[in-house]
Amino acid sequence: MAGEMRPSIAQFYAGKNVFITGGSGFIGKCVIEKLLRTCPDVGGLYLLMRPKRDKTPEERLQKVLESDVFVPIKNETPEVLKKLHIISGDVIEPQLGMSDSDYELLTDKINVILHLRQQRQQRQQRRRLTGTLRRCHVTADVTAHTNALRINTLAVKDLIAIGRNCKHLEAIVHTSTAFVQPSLNLIEEKFYEFQGDYSDIITTVMDGDDAAAERITPELLGDAPNTYVYTKHMAECMLADEASDLPIAVVRPTLVTSTWKDDPICGWTSSMAHLSGIFIIVARGYLRVKLAQPDIEVDIIPVDLVSNCIIAAGWRLGTNKPTPTIPIYNSSSTGFQRMTWGELSKFQQTYKR
Q: If I label 282, which of 126, 163, 202, 203 is the partner at 20 to 30 A Cα–Cα?
């Protein structure tokens, strides 16, 4: 856009329709709130939500809106909440579990896709892939391992297909992790080669049985500490190989924690699955011992900065000329705020009460 005045972020999103996966999650809530509050002229936010624990998608959205982070909006501009629209579906299903009519609605209207849904497997065994690589419909006995690759990797294929069919697409932002190569001291904003052919790996495990998957797990994971990192890395490579012609950006947050500034609430969190959960259980006395090297730096990033980065990445895609490679943004505090695990532990002891 040389020679032209670039629109502001609010101006770019004005009139735009945004499709969001993972809107009920920690990062998702922050992104939704930020868009509604700072981009009040946004066309509409279409939220992919599934039924969960006997609650309908509509009931789940109401639960999301009960979060403290939405209080300023409900007090000052409640009318913007009418811009929220439910799309019933589930990323674990083919075509994201959407009906044909909803699929057609999205491809006709959507300008920006924000893929925030992810499976972290915090309570699962860390180095097990059994069942993870099976693309299947959800049943009562499907494990979180099964969901991990479906959510973190295979759903990306469906999003690519949706993006190709969208008539007015301007941006897709995929949320990954900054730890795609945890063995390296420096993670650059570039794609890292995936060891092996991910298509062959998926096919092999999908066609095999649990015992076969168990046997090949150590070889597959390599240096990856868990299936979350492994499947996120796989998804990045899938994007690089299959969707570099689309307007896509990748945002890689480090360890996400509570909000930093009064924008709109300082210190807000809604999740026990992220680093804030550790802070809470330490403060309550449930966790008294942590195994960590005290001199190792910990990279913490507040969720409001992550949501800002995701929204800005969509804006930058939509206001820049296409690039030959997919841009990657590490959302990290490295170089700005350094803290070791030892310093963090002392900080917790000081402020836990």
A: 126
Three-state secondary structure call for residue 104: helix
Q: Which token pair is 188? A: 């650059």
Least reliable range by pLDDT among 82-86, 111-115, 298-302: 298-302
* Residue carrying structure tokens 């705020």: 337
Alpha carbons 351 and 353: distance in angstroms, whole number: 5
Contacts 24+ apart (CB under 8 A), 36-40: 36/73, 36/77, 36/80, 36/81, 36/83, 36/84, 37/72, 37/73, 37/77, 37/80, 37/264, 38/9, 38/10, 39/9, 39/10, 39/13, 39/14, 39/311, 40/10, 40/77, 40/80
Tell me the backbone φ, ψ of residue 129, rounded to 5 degrees.
Answer: -115, 0
78 Cβ contact partners less than 8 Å away, ≥ 6 residues apart: none
Measured between alpha carbons, how far is residue 70 from residues 25, 34, 230, 264, 329 in Å? 14, 9, 34, 8, 27
Q: Are 155 and 116 in contact (CB under 8 A)?
A: no
Number of neighbours of residue 165 by Cβ within 10 angstroms: 14
Short-list 90, 89, 115, 88, CA closest to 246: 115
Q: Does the pLDDT value for residue 60 go beyond 70?
A: yes
Q: What is the CB neighbour count within 10 angstroms for residue 140?
A: 4
- Strand 300-302 to 112-115 pairing: unpaired
Note the pTM of the prediction, 2 decimals.
Answer: 0.87
Residue 137: pLDDT over 60: no
Domain layout of the chain by residue ranges: 9-259+302-336
